[in-house]
Amino acid sequence: APDIPVIDQAYSKLSNSITVEWRAVPGATNYMLTAQDGDSFVETLVKNSPGTVTGLKPATLYRITVRSINSGGKSQPSPFRKVKTVLAAPILSVRSPSCDSIAVSWKAVHMAAGFSVSLMRSDGLGRMLKQNTTNTSLIFTNLDPGTLYTIKAYAWNANGMPGDDFTYNQRTSPNAPVDVKVAFSSGALRAIISWMPTEGALTYSVTVSSGLLKLRCNTSSASCMVPSLQCSSEYYVSVTAYNDAGSSEPTDAVSLKTIPCAPVNISIEEDEPGHLLVSWSGVSLGHYYVVFVKSDDGLEVHCNTSYTQCHFQSDCGFTYFISVFAYNKAGQSPLGDVFNYTTAPCCPSEFRAVFMSSDTLRVTWAPVRGADLYETRVAGGSSVVLCRDTATACTLSALQCSTRYNITVYALSEARGSNTSCEPQNVATAPCSPKIKNISKEGLSVISVQWQPNKEEATYVVTARGEAGLWHCTSTRNSCTLMDLPCGSAFSVSAIARSPAGQSLPSYSIPLETAPCCPNDLILTQVAQSVTNISWSVGRGAQTYVTTLESPKGQAKCHTLQTHCLLGCITCGTNYTVSLRAISETGLTSSCTYQGYSSSACCPSGVKLYRLSNNGIRVFWGASDETINYTADLHGSKGNFSCTPSWGLSHCDITKIPCGDVYTVVVAPVTDNGLTFCPKKIYSVTCSGSSVGMVIYRGKSNAKHI
């Protein structure tokens, strides 16, 4: 076995170990170190000096021995040395209660008389702070916020011997961030909060609170986005910095007012035609409002107000799209509901009313913007007429004559109904047809027509229509006179009424027949002493004729369909009045008078012939009227002879008349046309021996001798 080692020195630098130094023993390959505490001991095998025995208890007195070892065995233990292990290091509990302080605490260390604690920035900057204390805690203040410090502590015993030291790295908590800024994004209802980075801060926590609502955002950068904010809300924003030491104080709260919410309870109404009133409920945090009104033709107007209503001018027949926004410093509220409001259609223009007939009126108008349907309302008389159509025209029938109607055309829309401010148009219908009450003759060619007039003022036109033409008369009263109607004509008489409103239908026609025309020409021809032939031209309209020759001595009359007639029983030498009555088929009569007619003078009576001495014959007669001149005509085979007496005589002489001949003798009144209706008498003039003969009257059955 090797020699016994000799310990040079033994000491304890750590609370769980003792280091031993000795002189080397020749031939020894290993050494066995033994630390004995009472019955317990700890052995450690080492190669050479120095050697350390570990696993010891702090502040404990140990007996230290060394034995050398080789292949031959172990030596005896060296003389022992007594060595006490140093104090254990205090186990530190470190925290940073504030951004500029670090609090250190520990548990009591066995056999410790005091403690020494030092603190220094880990980056080596600044000076080291050191404190000795017999307490088990202390605080370092006035430190740099957010800075990493190295803390070393150890305990010493009553002899001042320091024990193990304990090193701990501790960072101070960060300072509160500064220059906090809030950027609000109104469109996304989110806020971006930014600040200046704080020394030593590892993370940051942003708190956005409003009442009981708290929103948080954690980040390691110097900004943070907080989404899903509520409109019309006021938030308070604070930022806290964090590191492994703890948190900073929150920053002073920064007020964040979000954009207002979209206005609600929006109402739109036309307080009067042409004016829209838009109103809404006030919005929290809304400083002012802007109302946008866009019409369907693309024109847009807006209104800024701090009140909760706006007035706009509007046109009829337009659709307006209305949106209301609230504003504050944060921006514009979100888009709320977009309302559309359609104004009632305009009242139709270019109104035109044309009568198609007396009781039918066609009304037209120009198309109206926004109209889906048109309603024509006609009020007048005792009825109301309605007409609904999509067309811009309406035909109103069965209207009452002589009536004023108020015609109102409304344009209707499904969205708004009709415009109630449309003015009615006043239209009067044509007068009612007159009713002819009476037609009377005022004269030969004058007809008076009477009718029942209308209540309204009107001009009446009476028309007589026939083959002979048209005749008119006009009056504003209830009668008028048709003049110069031709005779012998048939007419249809009707009346119409005219007014500025139009012309009535004609009245029912009344037949009218004028009296027959008197014949223009009437000729009387005496065909016998007591018979006269009367002929005349045709009287228009006459069917029969009654001719009358009348004198104090009597009358002769003839009723015939012809245009001529023979009248007998005519008294000779008599003046007659000539009259003719033309009678129509319906019995109308025209009394016609003509120039008087005188029948031929009466034939003389008692015609006798007397033989004169000079071969002459005297014709003698009894005159019927002393004022009448007569002529005597003798007609024989040997010649014709005549004589005319002096005024007032009733005989005349014919000289040198041949005898031996038969003469026809006629004594008749002298007439202009030479016609005579006196009887002819035949006389025979005989010759005697001395050429004196006899005159013999030869009648129908006998002869007379003179």
UniProtKB/TrEMBL annotation:
<feature type="domain" description="Fibronectin type-III">
    <location>
        <begin position="1"/>
        <end position="88"/>
    </location>
</feature>
<dbReference type="InterPro" id="IPR036116">
    <property type="entry name" value="FN3_sf"/>
</dbReference>
<dbReference type="InterPro" id="IPR003961">
    <property type="entry name" value="FN3_dom"/>
</dbReference>
<dbReference type="InterPro" id="IPR013783">
    <property type="entry name" value="Ig-like_fold"/>
</dbReference>
<protein>
    <submittedName>
        <fullName>FNDC7 protein</fullName>
    </submittedName>
</protein>
<dbReference type="Pfam" id="PF00041">
    <property type="entry name" value="fn3"/>
</dbReference>
<feature type="domain" description="Fibronectin type-III">
    <location>
        <begin position="262"/>
        <end position="346"/>
    </location>
</feature>
<feature type="domain" description="Fibronectin type-III">
    <location>
        <begin position="89"/>
        <end position="175"/>
    </location>
</feature>
<feature type="domain" description="Fibronectin type-III">
    <location>
        <begin position="176"/>
        <end position="261"/>
    </location>
</feature>
<feature type="domain" description="Fibronectin type-III">
    <location>
        <begin position="430"/>
        <end position="517"/>
    </location>
</feature>
